[in-house]
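Record type: monomer structure entry
Structure origin: computed from sequence
Chain ID: A
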Amino acid sequence: MTMPPFPAVAERRPERPDSFDAPRSRLERLVRPAFLVVGLILVTACRWGDTTDRVTLPATWLFAALLLLAGWTCPRQAALSLTLMSLLVWSWIEATRAAVWTELLAGQFMRLAVALWLVAWMIRLRERLAGAYRLARLDSLTGLPNRQALVEALDAELSRTRRFGRPFTVALLDCDGFKGINDRGGHLAGDDVLRRIGLALRQHTRRYDCVGRLGGDEFLLVLSEVDREDAVLVAERLRAALRHFVEREYPVLTFSLGVVTFRTAEVDWDECVQQADDAMYAAKRQGPDQTRFEVVDEPTTRTLPLPK
């Protein structure tokens, strides 16, 4: 099956992070490890300049704090590698000044065990919190973003439009006849339909668009930098993908789609969703399998039937 081409955008944007501790920019990805390396170098320099044979308490606590920071901010492999390298440097400094090798080895093994435990504990804590944060923003049935994640994505798109003046599109999709499938086949059949729809939408949208389940059999799409002309292509592409995913098992299932393009950011979440909802119900009133296209502040609307 040939899919209509997806419209190009002015620039490629990085994927929105799905973790609460994910770096928000390329610069931040570089600054975090650089900051840790500089901190560990400073601690090592303090140890080198120490005139005693024992590690001072402030340097030890600062070193432990930097290890915890490494476990929190860096990926698993980077954090462990940074820990091992810093311990090797510190051990080398100790070896050049130590007189008793047995005490040196005992101290280094203890320091290594404590450092690895601290970093591993921080990594595990970060991963668990990130997993809980991610689950709180995902729909458990389809794996798509839930309402809260959609609110965040739409707010981010509104901020982007205010800053750059670029349009975006909000589309609301509703399943025609879903209640009949749910009644005849049971909730398992209904869940299967929702999963198929979620998979089709996820596979046929760009990685920096946000596609989520609004509730029930309604799905909301926030399409970045998509104007009205491109929105028509997107709707055709999604309809073709949805037919491919459900026509064999559920041939009677059709879709009503309300597509609203916003060329202004003088709206909020509620207004965006309400206008998309109004467009979707206007399409339903025209009959099943219809798409309604609208542009904010423009009275011209049109309804396109599903191509035969």
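Annotation 1: The radius of gyration is 27 Å.
Annotation 2: The longest helix spans residues 101-136.
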